[in-house]
Amino acid sequence: MQNELTCNQVLALMSFYVEDKLNYRLKEYVDEHLRQCPKCRGVYMQSKKIMHHIMSLTNESNKESPYVTKQYKDFKNNLSAYIDNELDEHESIRIKKIAISNPIARKDLEDMYTFKRLLHNSFDKTKNEWKSDYSKYIVNQVNNDAEKSYIDPFFKVIGAFMTLISIIILGFAATLYF
Ligand SMILES: [Zn+2]
Question: Distance between CA atoms of 133 and 124, rounded to whole angstroms?
Answer without folding.
Answer: 9
